[in-house]
Amino acid sequence: MHMNSRRLIRAHLVALSVALGACASPATATFDGALAPADEAAATGDRGLPGEDGARTPGRCSPGSDEVCGCTNGWKGTQRCDAAGRYGACRCEGPPCVPGRHQACACADGGRGAQGCSAAGVFGACQCEPPPDASAPLDRPVGDDVTATPDVAPDADVTVAPDATATPDVAVTPDVAVTPDVTLDVTPDAAVDAPAPPDVVATPIRETRRVAAGTATLVAVFPVARGLLIVRSDGLSLVSRDGVVLTEVAAPREITAAAFDGTTLVAADRAFFVTYSPDLAMRTSGSLVEPCASAVMVSGGRFVCGPANDWDRIFYTYNAVTAQLLARSQRYTYNGIPMRRVPGEDAFITVTTSSSPSDFHLYRVGADHQAVFINESPYHGGFAATLVYAFDGAPPMSLINQEGTFFGLGGTGCAPGSSFTSMCFVRNGSLGTLLGGSSFAAMADDGRGSLFGLVATSGGFSDTVCARGCSSERIDIRTRTVTSRRPYTAEIGRVVTAVYDSWSDAMVVGYGLRGSSFGTTSGYRVDLVAH
Q1: CA triplet 209, 251, 325: central angle to 5 degrees?
Q2: Which residue in 186, 273, 313, 483 has its CB near the most CB atoms, within 10 A?
Q3: Where are the chain's structural domains?
Q4: Under 8 Å between Cβ of 459 and 468
């Protein structure tokens, strides 16, 4: 299509989007797989062309917006759009921030918020927590003290996020794919970015609380400054830590996977992936080669999608900024479906949960954007390789499984070749805090040496996890000691996600309720679990 014709189509789409925007609720959007730009510059992708010094030549842009640019020393700089809609010179006055890191910042009302460092090494806007409701207690327990009873209605003092999703009167889906004219550089720097733990002042919760519940399938949960981003099969929600729904996004197709790097959320359905800000403002979208069963975000704003088949499986790497397909991996067989990023590295782990014996498998994503299998755990049985595991730091030296066993990640010694001679996933110690017959039902870590876990004792074949009570524990990994412990009871059919929330100093546990048949779930719950 001729360039002028393509720009004309985009201009019409923008005009239609702006006209419809006046009729939609500002806190409600539709996950329709289509680009929903805030202005014409975002829609056309006309951000200027890179010059010799890495700065972009002037082009149409949104006044006041910042654009990533390359510096001569290899750092990432920024250039700001002036009132005339033109980008200025690339600002390279200092080193980049560490992608994924958060720092405290001042809010306009005098309060304190947090801002996150993007994948490009630039701090975003300050996210300010709304003032608390003076009429509501700071901590609202779930049920009786810390006991959750998922199969009955929550107690009156626990606010539950509704399952019903608001849908705008009109959904606009372009007939053509909107592809930016300029491809942004997302090649990672020589030093792999590390999602360091947030540097924010936590407000610890004193009691476990229910944050959300519903009948849909839970996909993922990610903590942000304003609350929790909850991704379900039927949509997305931003929910405060008191259970108040702040923003709701409806999904026209089933969402199957999601990933978050601290500044960009990517949700994938059976046809498209859509990127959002931490406030669920839509940024861009792109079509998928295959639906994602699992996914991760790595440096440079790259979204790695793994389909559901475990035979000749191909990983697809997309640019979450431009929505372009960057690379396809080779075909891999029987390495497992679920993916989890290794914190601080351009790497992820899969687990063969549907075969026996189960193993851990390590992949790395290089500068060519291709996901490459490195190696697997060498023991092939005799230890627990499940989805319940955590790390000892960010970047980590070891993975810790649900039995409390440490498996070294090998550093440069972890390389392709025989799994028996490789240094990947080699046993190198034990946590030593679990009593006989107990194991972790859920695990998370803060990246700074603390592990958080739900400890469960062995029950009957039909028992749901924590139905007879679990122990919520905080463990100092270096000293191998339990520093705090509280009881926790819930009817957990399957743990979907467990992640540390630095803003509440608690572990977020998202789980499905046990279904009518073994191995199935029906509905979900999200709890902030105190320790």
Answers
A1: 110
A2: 273
A3: 209-529
A4: yes
Q: Taking a C-beta distance cutoff of 8 angstroms, is the pair 115, 127 a contact?
A: yes
Separation of alpha carbons 303 and 294, rounded Å: 11
Q: Is 469 helix (H, G, I), strand (E, B) or coil?
A: coil
CA distances from 415 to 123, 192, 376 (A): 34, 17, 10
pTM, rounded to two decimals: 0.66
Count the residues in the chain. Answer: 531
The band of 418, judged by pLDDT with boundaries at 50, 70 and 90, is: confident
> CB-hemisphere CA count at 13 Å for 206?
4
C-alpha to C-alpha distances, 7 to 29, 44, 45, 179, nearest whole angstrom = 25, 7, 10, 11
Q: How far is CA 271 from CA 251, 253, 391, in A?
A: 12, 8, 33
* SS3 (DSSP) at 330: coil
Tokens of 338: 């679920």
pLDDT exceeds 80 at position 234: yes
Q: Comparing 200 with 16, which gets the higher pLDDT?
A: 200
Contact at 8 Å (CB) between 268 and 278? no
Q: How far apart are the first and last CA of the chain?
A: 59
Specify the 3-state DSSP secondary structure of 257: strand
Query: Listing from the earlier edge strand, what are the strands of the sheet with 302-306?
Result: 294-298, 302-306, 316-319, 325-328
Q: Give the span between the Cα atoms of 467 and 488, in whole angstroms.
A: 9
Dihedral pair phi/psi, residue 13, rounded to 5°:
-65, -40
